[in-house]
Structures are given as C-alpha cells and as structure tokens.
Amino acid sequence: MKIFEVIKKVLSIVAMVALIGFIVVGIKMIIERPSDTKLALYHKMELDYYRVKDDLVDAVDSIIHHYAPTSELHGIVLVEECDEYEIDVRFALAQGLCESHFGTKGLARRTNSVWNIYAYDSVDFDKLHVAGKFEHPDHSVRPYLKLVSKKYLTDTKTEQDLMRNYVNIHGKRYASDVNYEGRLVSRYNEINSPTIDSLMNQYQMLRLRLNR
C-alpha cells in the first residue's frame, strides 16, 4: 500500500508540474502574441502600401503616356527600380523624356534604350555596343539607374547636382549637348507633380515601416 501511495504522490506531483508548465507557456503565448489592435494596424498599413504604390504607378504611367502614347515603358518597373536605387523617379522620367520620349524617338526606337546609354553622339545602330541594346524598354531601366548610381551620384551628389552639371566620376558629361542640363531642368519642372511627390513620400514611409 505504501508503494502505491508513493506512486500516487509522484504522479500527482508530475501532473502538477505539467499543469504549471502548460499555464506558463499559455501565459507566455498570450503576452507575446500581437494584440488584435496591432494586427489590425499592420494589415491597414499593408493595404495602404499597395494602394499608394498602385496610385504612384498610375501617376507615372499617366505621365509616360501623356508625352508618348505609344511608349511600351511600364511605370511599375520604373517605380520599383528607382526605389531600389534610391533615385528620384521624376528625375528618371525627365531624362527619359529628354533622351527619347520614353523610347519612341531617335535611336531608342531600335535599341529600346530609353535613356540612350552607350549611344554616344548619335552612333549608328550597327556600331552601338550590345550593352546599349534591349529587347524591351523595361529592360533598359535597371542598367540606366545602375550607371547613374555608380558613376554619377557618387559621394554627396544628388539629382539636383546633376541637373546643374551632369558629369560622372571622371568629369565626363552624360551628353555632349551644352544645353543638356537646361533641357533636363525644364522637363523636370514640367512634370514636377505634387501628386507624385506626395505618393512617393508615402510609399517610402510605408515601405520602411513594413520593413520591405
């Protein structure tokens, strides 16, 4: 009988310890689980993020098709790539407009290079480096932004600096036209939309808060 009583007491203690363990785990899960309010706020931020992004893309597409109705350049590509390289989307739009009307004029109609990278001084299509030819205008976005980011926007330089003096790290100009900066500034101001400014600020803020 004593053995059974000992076993009973041991089992009782084990059961009590297990119960306490379950209670502790349960309390920990409740404490660590985000509140319904926090979850609701997070989901709202996600919805706002996609809404703002869609509105920004629509605004960029609207500008592209306003100046070049036949352009095949997509706003979604420009918005996402500019965000990745931290380059003002309006600056990219202004230069794309200056260079080729978003791929619809000049050599870009054959190269699909919206910003005419490697197309120095109206070089012939056949003599143009293969790196300056693309299957689609969208494919020219990243190489252009990569070039500007690594060769032009160095140190503390900004897009505003380039619109005053568009030279690279070696002091070479992006374009030989002496009035290039003036034309770029004119286009930049022409498409300087408060809507894009506001949407871009909201988009970047929500992206940071959502850790995207």
Describe the structure.
With 212 residues, the protein is mainly α. It folds into 2 domains: 1-33; 38-209, Lysozyme (Orthogonal Bundle), CATH 1.10.530.10. It has 9 helices and no strands. The chain has helices at residues 2-32, 36-67, 75-85, 89-100, 108-111, 141-152, 159-162, 180-190, 194-209. The protein is elongated. The model has no long low-confidence stretch (mean pLDDT 85).
Architecture blueprint of SSEs:
Layout: H1 2-32, H2 36-67, H3 75-85, H4 89-100, H5 108-111, H6 141-152, H7 159-162, H8 180-190, H9 194-209
Helix pairs in contact: 2-3, 2-9, 3-6, 4-8
What are the key terms here?
9 helices, mainly alpha, Lysozyme, 2 domains, 212 residues
What is the approximate shape? elongated
Low-pLDDT runs of 5+ residues are none
Task: State the distance separating the first and last CA atoms.
Answer: 67 Å
Count of individual beta strands = 0
Compute the gyration radius: what is it? 29 Å
Mean pLDDT: 85
Structural class: mainly alpha
Query: Count the helices. How many?
Result: 9
User: How many domain modules?
Assistant: 2
Largest sheet at a glance?
A: none
The CATH topology of the largest domain corresponds to Lysozyme
**Beta-strand level of the residues, as a percent range?**
under 5%
CATH class of the largest domain: Mainly Alpha
| CATH structural architecture of the largest domain | Orthogonal Bundle
Order of helices and strands: HHHHHHHHH
Oligomer: single chain
Helix content: 55-70%
